[in-house]
Amino acid sequence: MQSIHKRDKLVAKDGWLLCPRCGRGKVLRLNSETRARSLTVYCKLCGKESIVNIDECLCQ
Question: pTM higher than 0.85, yes or no?
Answer without folding.
Answer: no
